[in-house]
Predict the structure.
Amino acid sequence: MISDFVQSIGFLAAICTTIAFLPQAWKIYKTKSSKDISLPTWIIFSFGVFLWLIYGILIMSFPLILANIFTLLLSLFILIFKIKYNK
Amino acid sequence: MISDFVQSIGFLAAICTTIAFLPQAWKIYKTKSSKDISLPTWIIFSFGVFLWLIYGILIMSFPLILANIFTLLLSLFILIFKIKYNK
């Protein structure tokens, strides 16, 4: 049995690694510049987050599904803007 | 009981979201340019991955510990180079 304290650490970790990409998405949207951002990183990362989402659905983990839907939207946003403003 | 197929999806997801940051780390190292990279993103992400590592240690999950040590090293590398070459 995982204690409430340990669960809280995991919950806080999930929040951080999800909201972390908001400033990057905002920056790329605002500056319209993405030269320093790695294209393979965001292709592989988006695919990985998609797999986490599938995994979350298969094991019916609501927190995993919710966190990964949000992260997938942010990473696809960054990926699309990376391709659009790659200069 | 989680099936082998489902476990494989989770394993592949973990590999993708870990190795994804290798090309970004390589790019920032090679170009010495990090203008388009968001500083708050890599501060929050590194902190989140650190919490995932603590969570992995607390629940004694070897895959979680291993994946997050690797991701933490990559994200700290990107964070340090972001600060160093922020031009």
Chain B touches chain A at residues 2, 6, 9-10, 12-24, 26-28, 31, 33-42, 44-45, 47-49, 51-52, 54-55, 58-59 (CB under 8 Å). Helices of chain B lie at 4-19, 21-31, 39-58, 62-84. The longest helix of chain B spans residues 62-84.
